[in-house]
Amino acid sequence: MISEQAIKICIIDDIPAVVRGLSMRLPWEQHGIVVAGTASNGEEGLEIIRQHQPDLVLTDIRMPFVDGLEMMRAILEEQPGMKLIFLSGYTDFAYAQEAVKLGAFDFIVKPFTPDQVLASVLKAKEVLIRERCQAEYTRGMEQKLRESLPFLRQEYMRLLIRYGTQQQKQGQQWDFFGIEMESRNFYVLVAEMDFFAERTAELPVNEVELIRFAVQNILQETISGYTHGIVFRENVNQFVLVINPSKDMDAEQLAERCRENVCKYSYQSVSIGLGGEVKETAQLAVSYAQALSALAHTFLTGGNSVYRYEEGGHLDSAMPRYSYEKEKELLYCLRSANLPKAEEQLESIWGEWLASHVRPDPVMVRTLSLELAHSIHRVFTEKASDPEVQELEKKLADMNHAASFEELRGRIRDFCRQGCNYLQIRQFSDARVLVERAITHINSHLHENLSVADCARAVHLSPSYFSNLFKKEVGMTLAQYIIGRRMEKAKELVLEGMQVQDIAVSLGYEDRPYFTELFKKYTGMTPTDFRSKYTSPPQG
Description:
By secondary structure, the protein is an alpha/beta fold.
């Protein structure tokens, strides 16, 4: 059985002794070569070559019926990679010239030695192996190219919507990338998955990719039902759709259908910006920029809508009105850590931006909001400690990732709360002083129904900040501390002989059984058992 890796050779000569000598006396197998077949003329040679499809043919150039040249012409049309080595006499010079033109690998002039033949064949083998390796490498590259085609198509489209292409090369490029579209008249749409980062933050990577694939597939199938087009990923949560106009539906209706189908079949929502129609691929960048401009309005509305670009402006956007007097009032309030008043000023500033009957420019709204946040940041960092400054700077940087105006406003409100808390601590010296003041307040109000809000109010802190501060300083929650103080006071009162009901009321517990249960949980004994254990029996 012939090895698939072995080099196969056929030997053809009209002199039987030559065929016998060449096929049997040379160490072919030692060099990884096998003799697949032999023939005594060109006609038989054609048959065995077609039958065995060798890599090499060692043949006389002049033979009866079909000579070596005729055989070469026929075979190289069928197997162009085959190597032919001719055995040629001195009188065959014209034949040899023709063979060179046809692409013969080598000539061995008669008379020849076995070593000459073997050397020529081994040289041909070396070339064949090199060509095999090159062919295998090329096949591998072609396979990788096919596998990479979706990615390459996406990269090509990314470049196309930014820079266009030479019109004369467009057809070749689209054929290569498998883009089936009309070569003129386009719309560009940009679809963005709403709040994608927040909705997928806790999901594993495979689920996130599945969601992205599903949305892209829904968009592609939707537009394919009405027109030619292609959908490709632009970034983590955005897809770009390049489409030809539909005969059945205008572009805005098609965008709305895409939005509906994504919501219906993937349980995600998308916002879609629609650019204007352009004639040529060189103008795609214009439509793409318009689509992005229209999509920016999702920042104000919260998404799940279609936004069409209108000539002459960003959906008739207006510059938001900005009151620097109100900004100064806001900063004064923050410097004094007056959070309620500061929040009023914030809402007044934002309300003024949105009050106009013309929708404000979303880009300017974002820009002005971030500038306002930077002004607030400067106020807080004047008195904040280094760790506090680092925390505030992190929150400030995170604001750039806000997906909507509502989210950005929430982040700025939270920023103000945190900064005011820091300033409040500075106003009351340090955390321990504040906690000691809170403890004093608790000890003098044990008979009342104390809450976190009550205690926080007593030291002028927000409830959440006070709660965290108290636990950090004392090592237990406020509720645990209050119960502990009450139970310690209760033990004193029990030993002093006060009635259990009166003790419960004096410590803010109207329900005696509940008080008794807490006392037992704290001391391991009921009030009565506790008194019995620590007081001496009456003298008889």
